[in-house]
Design goal:
With 273 residues, the protein is an alpha/beta fold. The protein has a single domain, classed as Arginase, Chain A (3-Layer(aba) Sandwich). It is 33% helix and 16% strand. The chain has nine helices and ten strands. An eight-stranded parallel beta sheet has the order 4-1-5-10-9-6-7-8, sandwiched between helices. α7 links the parallel β7 and β8. α3 runs parallel beside α4 and α8 packs parallel to α9. The longest helix is centred in the N-terminal third of the chain and has 21 residues. The radius of gyration is 17 Å and the shape is globular. 52% of the residues are buried.
Amino acid sequence: MRLVDVPFDHGSPRRGTGCGPDAILAAGGERALGAGGLHVLRSTVGLDPSVDLPGTEIARTFAVNRALARLVREAAVAGETPIVLAGNCNSCLGTVAGTRENVDSVVWFDSHPDIDTPETSTSGFFGGMALAALTGACWQALCASVPGFRPVAPDRVTLVGTRHISAVEDEAIIRTRISRVDATALDGQADGGAGVYLHIDLDVLDPAVAPANPWAPADGLTPDELVEAVGSVCSGQHVAAAALTAYDPTGDPSAVVAATAIRVLTVLGEELG
């Protein structure tokens, strides 16, 4: 397996959620992933802000994704399963691009659907456009700059634990035939596709129990529910790549989210190993 850490928050190194990968690694992430007995290699997306990163947030984010796609591609070619620890959900672009021949569906754990576009967003938050970009609804020119990127068909996407949905996003979900499933209803049955990208935004967790970041709405999954649901996906589907994202450790003084991430990585190591 290849553990790839992406310590960036929208192109800025090690701030906010960009500190999440380091916190998960410090809690034992690499060891947890090796629980299944397979050797775990590790790579880090390392870019020099003064040389490699452009001046705007969006341009920097895509520069990070281009570097991530190359590392993930290297892992996939070597026959390794890439597991990504990233600051933002936008990392899905580089992760899926690097494994594109092996991925034709997405299971998206997130409290938000992330399907706003520049035309529909009222906040301008680029992270809220991650899944829209992955499914080809926006940022096509910049997505094309990520090596290997091809959009995933929206009807091959399943949202899990998503609960903060605007009217515009709800309309887009219905129109594009994105599926929504309760975490307890996942049956783990394969559908005959090439493989799934398993995306876990840790704000799918209930912030009253496990506060992943400042944007996590109430009434999310418990740590036990998330771990069980991830196991259900892994038990019946071919997970070609997975990612844990969007963890800001400064809002989690008891490190409950980090501990939950370790449990998730242990499941991934055991099931995929």
